Amino acid sequence: MSTVALRTVVLKTEARLYVREFGTLFWVLGFPPVLLVILGSIPSFRRVDAGLGVRLIDLYVPVLVMVGQIVVGLQAMPPIITGYRERGILRRMSTTPVRPSALLTAQMGLNGATGLLSALICLTIGRLAFDVQLPRQLGGYLLALLLTSAAALALGALVSARARTARLATAFGMGVFFPSLFSAGLWLPVQSMPHVLREIVVLLPFGAASQAFDQAAAGHWPAWSHLGVLAGWTVVASVAAARWFRWE
């Protein structure tokens, strides 16, 4: 059987296992949309904020788009990969024609696709339920979304590389999860943060993503500085994960 055929078999197997994880699917595909509906149901979120000049719900749609990427990268993927290593599955696979890299590629592909589907659901609900305008600079928005997804998966791969057990992977991921949500603007939109705090946050991947989404939504191409921060974090985290990752 060819390498491509083996990778296809692994992908199909992992996909069947993945869809059985109801809890994971809920937190990725259910939690951001449900939170969006809850926030959009608050009357003050549907009124223009005098200080920001926009409705809060308009700011929270891209935030919840990022939440989906953060959940798949830092909460969904690391325990699965680390669990495979902990149970010796990766070590046993290394002795067969199916290389462990095929499983890792399948996991990253499935989680990345699920995160992008979550983003699509949030954008659709925002548009249909709360009249949130679709991004005017669609190309820039999609590029920022892909880089955000890549950064989240790279951080998840780094957590998977450093954690020896699935329990530690969950703990490490949680340690990065909440700061990531804060930098994405879940508790306080980046646009309304104090100047000094905002300047710090935009150096982090999801703070930069927030600004890139905001610019693309307004019809501007995202600043290359924000895209560069996303790309830089992706490269650094990926290189570090590859350096520290162990199959057993």
UniProtKB/TrEMBL annotation:
Against PROSITE patterns, the record matches this protein to: ABC_TM2
Q: How does it sit in the membrane?
A: Multi-pass membrane protein
Q: Where are the transmembrane segments?
A: 21-39, 59-81, 102-126, 138-161, 168-188, 223-245
The Gene Ontology terms for molecular function here are: ABC-type transporter activity
Q: What GO cellular-component annotations does this UniProt entry give?
A: membrane
Residues forming the ABC transmembrane type-2 domain are 23-248
Q: Which Pfam families match?
A: ABC2_membrane_3 (PF12698)
State its location(s).
Answer: Membrane
Identify the keywords attached in UniProt to this record, alphabetized: Membrane, Transmembrane, Transmembrane helix
How is this protein named in the record?
ABC-2 type transport system permease protein
* Organism of derivation: Kribbella jejuensis
Phylogenetic lineage = Bacteria, Bacillati, Actinomycetota, Actinomycetes, Propionibacteriales
